[in-house]
Amino acid sequence: MKQLKLTLVALLSMVLLTVSAQSKKEAALTTALENLRIGLIDANESLLNSVTSPKLTYGHSAGVVEDQKTFVANIVNGKSDFVSIDIVDQSIDIDQNMAFVRHTFNAVTSTDPKVAPIKLKILQVWEYKQNAWKLRARQAVKIVI
After folding, report:
1. Residue 114's pLDDT is what?
2. Distance between CA atoms of 75 and 36, rounded to whole angstroms?
3. Intra-chain end-to-end CA distance of the chain, in Å
4. For 50-81, what is each residue's pLDDT tens digit?
5. What DSSP character marks residue 130?
6. Residue 16: what pLDDT?
7. What's the confidence (pLDDT) of residue 44?
8. How far, CA to CA in Å, does 15 sit from each of 1, 2, 3?
9. Bridge-partner residues for 18, per DSSP?
10. How far apart are CA 63 and CA 122, in angstroms?
11. Is 79 helix (H, G, I), strand (E, B) or coil?
């Protein structure tokens, strides 16, 4: 009976540690997602570099695919300029050190002199390395407004 209690306590402890680790990873991912959103709006080069992988493949709804350097440069130099971004219908699936995030991306862009709303469906793949989430891949699909 004593052995059974010890086994149950050990098993419960492992489950709680796993849940705790998972919730810490999810909280860290939620922070990284928000930092990406803020980095896009503020055109913050250091923030964008901190949340993206050097191996980033960033796919746009028009079919253009950028690496990290090009993606960050196009945000910082204003080629892609976001006035506002609203993320809705987000789902997060974490599988060990990978995370798959889907959401609807409602934004307002500004390309002189045109200001226009866009609505996209997004799939992001995040990688957890060295205690940090990094955006590894992103693909967008346009939704006609």
Report:
1. 85
2. 12
3. 65
4. 999 999 999 999 999 999 999 999 999 999 89
5. T
6. 45
7. 98
8. 21, 20, 18
9. none
10. 13
11. coil
Q: State how beta strands 52-59 and 82-95 pair.
A: unpaired
Amino acid at 1: M
Is the CATH number 3.40.50.300 carried by domain 2-142?
no
Domain residue limits, the chain: 2-142
Work out the pLDDT band at 144, boundaries 50, 70, 90: confident
Nearest to 119 by CA among 83, 72, 76, 87: 87
Q: How many residues are listed for the chain in this entry? A: 145
Cβ neighbour number for residue 25 with a 10 Å cutoff = 19
Instruction: Compute the chain's Rg from CA coordinates.
Output: 19
Model confidence at 10: pLDDT above 70 = no
Q: How far is CA 133 from CA 5, 35, 129, 142, in A?
A: 38, 11, 6, 26
- The identity of residue 82, as a single letter, is F
